[in-house]
Amino acid sequence: MAALEPSGLTRRTMLIGAAAMLAAGAVAPRAAGTAGTVPQIRSVAARGSELIALTADASTDDNYALQTLTVDGQGQAALGPALPMALPADFHPHSIAARAATIWVTGVIELAADRARPGLVRILSGRAAYVALPVPEQIRSGAATAIALPGEGTIAVAVEGSPDEHLALISRSHLAVSADDGRTWTHRPLADGLGEGYGTALADTGSGLFAVVAAYDGAQTVYTGAAEAPLTTAVTLPDAGRPMAVVSSDAYVSVFSERSGAVHEARFHPGGAALESLADCGCAGEIVAVQGRPGAWIEYDDTAVRTRGL
Predict the structure, then answer these.
(1) Which of 92, 121, 225, 251 is the most exposed place for a label (fewest CB within 10 A)?
(2) Is residue 217 part of a domain?
(3) What is the Cβ-side half-sphere exposure of residue 99, based on CA atoms within 13 angstroms?
(4) What is the pLDDT of residue 15?
(5) Among the ranges given (151-155, 260-264, 285-289), the one the predictor scored with the smallest mean pLDDT
């Protein structure tokens, strides 16, 4: 693969409002040109033929909502009405996935102004309730970030954070997996020593899980394997930047990353072997995978929301 340029991104560590910042940590800072009137689209999931977006106010990083997303014949997308929901008052959402009538929402439970823990919410018939999500002893402050649904009844959630309960940063990443729709869980470490890491991106490839973890210096490590077993290290790429989205298709897995304000795409075999690095993928703004739709993603900036593969 071609050499990748160093990331120009920086991270914030000691934070006031730890929960909100941890919830936003893996998507902020945003790519160049994405601050404007269009709401932040944190995550998108397919529920049957319906597309649902988790959004946040572009200027305040809060006022979260679940909104329908419609696509016209030219691939332009528009946010529709908000779905009825009432998230717990102390919960800050990060990512969503959907299966049948259920929407799963990862995020952060705010314990105090400088303390937060990973959380998972189940929404069914407009009612939201916490799911008992195990948190490793090594993560005393953190967030539940990426989510994938790799099989019937199976849920995989990236649980990230720090062993310091008063420090809002991602220094290690774990994977929590349930095989019975969230009733019981197992967890296993993915990576530690991340410094002020950029967070984990996760996808279901159809044959297993594909995870990308990025350290403070932009080095990305790819992990692959079956959801019910520990993932194995496939490849490490130095100076790859902040992973925004992992998009799996029949032919390959794309990892979209921001590096020095530009969007880059790297392609991998589903087993993790690197195929090629594309210096310019023709993308603009922030890239968000569409959970439940192989090969599909959206890209948005301050003027429009565009779709690919839908």
Answers:
(1) 251
(2) yes
(3) 14
(4) 33
(5) 260-264
Structural domain contains residue 146 = yes
Q: Provide the number of structural domains found in the chain.
A: 1
For residue 24, the SS3 value is helix
Q: Which domain holds residue 140?
A: 38-240
Residue 280 lies in a domain: no
Rounded Cα–Cα distance for residues 220 and 267 (Å)? 13
Domain CATH for 86: 2.120.10.30
The pTM of this model reads 0.88
Look-up: residue for tokens 């779905």? Answer: 83
What are the tens digits of pLDDT across the range 70-81? 988 887 888 898
Burial string for 149-182 (b: 16+ CB within 10 Å, else e) reads: bbeeebbbbbbbbbeebebbbbbbbbbbbbbebb
With beta carbons less than 8 A apart as the criterion, state whether 106 and 147 touch: yes
In this structure, is residue 107 part of a structural domain?
Answer: yes
